[in-house]
């Protein structure tokens, strides 16, 4: 495994939270919804 991939898949300390790896995905829908309820836009 390359050094870059090894670092990507290693744990990461974010404040008091430990992430299992450095791959994250932001939420994509509810932030656009009124009252956090999916609607016809989604």
Description:
By secondary structure, this protein is of the alpha+beta class. It has 1 helix and 2 strands. The protein has a two-stranded antiparallel sheet with strand order 1-2. Strand 1 (12-14) and strand 2 (17-19) form a beta hairpin. It is elongated. The mean pLDDT is 82.
Shape: elongated
The structure class reads alpha+beta
What does the radius of gyration come to?
Answer: 16 Å
Helix fraction, binned, reads: 10-25%
Element string (H = helix, E = strand): HEE
The main β sheet shows up as:
2 strands, antiparallel
Strand tally, please?
Answer: 2
The quaternary structure here is single chain
- Beta strand %: 5-15%
Q: Please, what is the average pLDDT?
A: 82
Q: Terminal Cα separation, in Å?
A: 39 Å
| Number of contiguous helices | 1
Q: Write out the strand line-up for the largest beta sheet, numbering strands in chain order.
A: 1-2
Supply the key terms.
single chain; 42 residues; two-stranded antiparallel ribbon
Show the helix and strand layout.
Layout: H1 3-8, E1 12-14, E2 17-19
